[in-house]
Amino acid sequence: MFQIRICTLLFLSSLLVLPAQQPKKLNSSEIYEAVQKLNVLASVLYIAAHPDDENTRLISYMSNEVKARTAYLSLTRGDGGQNLIGPEIRELLGVIRTQELLAARRVDGGKQRFSRANDFGYSKHPDETLEIWNKNKVLSDIVWTIRNFKPDIIINRFDHRSPGTTHGHHTSSAMLSVEAFDLANDASKYNTQLQLTETWQPKRLFFNTSWWFYGSEENFEKADKSNMLNFDIGVYYPTKGLSNNEVAALASSQHLCQGFGRLSQRGTQQEYIEFLKGDPLDNNNNIFAGIDTSWNRIKGGKAIGDILNKVESEFNFVNPASHLPQLLKAYKLIQTVENKHWKAVKTKELKAIIEACAGLYLEASSNTPNATPNSNITLNLEVLNRSSANISLASYKLSTLSNGISKNMEMSENQKLNFEEGIAIPANTNYTTPYWLNKKSTLGMYHVEEQELIGLPETPRAIFVDFNLNIEGTPITISKPVVYRYSQPDKGELYRPFEIIPEVSASIADKVFIFENDQQKEIEVTVKAGRDAIEGFVQMAYPNDWNVYPSKQKVEIANKGDIQKVVFTVIPPKNQSEGLITPMVNINGEFYTDELIEIDYVHIPYQTVLMPSESKVVRLNIEKRGNNIGYIEGAGDVVPESLRQIGYNVTIIKPEQISPENLTNFDAIVVGIRAYNVVEELKFKQRYLLDYVENGGNLVVQYNTNRGLKVDDLAPYDLKLSRDRVTDENALVRILEPNHPILNFPNKITIRDFEGWVQERGLYFPNEWSQEFTPLLASNDKGESSKEGSLLVAKYGKGNYIYTGLSFFREFPAGVSGAYRLFANLLSAGKEDNSNLKD
Ligand SMILES: [Zn+2]
Known about the structure:
The chain is α/β, with parallel strands linked by helices. The protein is 21% helix and 28% strand. The strands form eleven sheets. A seven-stranded mixed β-sheet has the order 3-2-1-4-5-9-6, sandwiched between helices. The protein has a seven-stranded mixed β-sheet with strand order 34-33-35-36-43-42-40, sandwiched between helices. Strands 22, 24, 26, 28, 29 and 32 form a six-stranded mixed β-sheet that branches. Strand 4 (153-156), helix 6 (168-183) and strand 5 form a beta-alpha-beta unit. The radius of gyration is 30 Å and the shape is globular. It starts with 27 loop residues before the first helix and ends in a 12-residue tail after the last helix. Bound molecules: zinc ion (ZN). The site of zinc ion (ZN) has 5 residues, from loops.
């Protein structure tokens, strides 16, 4: 199920966008922009709930025009959404979206932060959101981010005063931000954080409003704007050759798994923020009013500003290295300032500028893309000074050793120094996997114990090299994580982060096995070696009433990276039952139970993720009629594979294959999710589908959204889609027509079949239908009216038309028994007397 997939969606052709893996070296314009930013001591924090919520126009404007340190705090990693570019969902989708946010920030110049909140899926109201999230922990994380990042200004994407009008996560992000604004400076709140950081009072809190929140552009036009500031976010940047809104579009276009690739815009455009809290504004449209954002902000800053403002005003684009003496003088002064926060921030920024001005090339690359703890690798170090400055390499220090390796070598202009170092990876080195996935999460929260990791976008790299240089007499240490550099004939030079992986990992390709009767199944386990010469055995953990044989199998793999497949026979119990099976690899008495998942797309760096290797096994009591199912794919779902698991013969029907002759071969036709939103040809083929029903066929249509339907006649009778949905997966389901054949044949459907559903009941239910339709089920979220459009059936001619917004596409991959039993009934509609069987 999880496999490497190369995304070929699009290559962004801009100087701003490098292949994500390549270490960035700044050109003259970029160095100049960095110097401009160095001379601004101001910080802005933008807060919302998901990857893609952030307004990149405003983040880019704050970062590139205002030159403020700007960060986006996304409370979640967006695990709950859908993936348009590959098979990853849930935690793995969160990993991709985390990296897409980092890619967006590389474009717009912002920084990225997160909380431990888990994106559990759609939520209608903040009350529900804050029940499922641990409100106190999420609030603690926002306070922690404010205390560390120390923003002068906080901008909320959403309105905290309008619960219920948008996703509950959205409103919650704004409500919690308003609370955190007051708590961050209160030393009695979340006081254990204060062992690691200090309290902080941001100056002002804003809401990034727009016409959208007013219902229409006309309403917004008329709105009182006396409490608002506005910015022209269409400004042009000659140093980039791009307008701010173009930069913003490039940044949003990094959200490829959400299909956010978009056209850029140019020209003047206004963006509004509404003042909510903090010091009153002045008359000058200045969000930082009352804060000196120059070097004069800090004690001892004036002397530094005098030097660095001169560098900026007299910047030498032809030879930036000519500024090194001034930059080094400023660097030494910064080391003496008392303000620890700005000292750390500006030291880091200035070091990067010095490195770029000198054209330094410092790289530590491994001879292998990954290694296990307790193994040896070889590092190649490349050290090069591409300026006439007087620079020497005093020493370098490998993070695996306590002492540096002394060199004391001149770095003459453009004379490369190369070193080779064998290093031993310590036995206690942590695996390279997202830190928030190390412990089992709950529906609402990730579990992270180490306070210092909370908020970080990714796991800090375990292996790095400190290069201790002497630049014109000033000692400066520049740290580089170890990378893996390689070439591919059709792609050129490529980079990957260097990864620490386990000695062995095991996986089962399918995450769910459905047993439709008591027949045993053979299940294949793939064991992969993380090092050479793996020897041991695999055994399976499984539920009590199930059986697996043989009890263990030998594993012997000679070479790192190779795999061995072993097959186990799994025997289900006689009665309905479900549980987990887990392969356990025993190497020298140590058990390895994780699967190593690789995520490889061109727009983000290569990722490895360790997840518990487990598959769900489900023994169903299920009856079926009819066997040949035709499937018309929509926006993408795994329903065909799921139906095959319970023994159906499923044929994918391409839009061009939809013809009267082809359709007659099937016992039922199923239309994939959102097919009427995404498949253009259905406009012309719909009549064949309806004719098929009229002639005795059975058509099952899954959910579509009500906007952008390709057909006028979704059904043979009037049917109006709405945004009605039931997001609580445990919401009570009421059976409206207990005697209807679809709820009785061939499986008797009861309330029990609605137990154990995941994520939601369903979405985009019709809310109006003609009398030919019979609604079979009703359900609703807390405090809402009864929704009866989740499953509608109608006789049409000799056949049956069924429309359902129930989320079968989510329940099947989770192995939910009742969903399979009910769907088998939908496919069996009209076959009570067996007269329509065609197999
Ligand atoms: Zn959102």
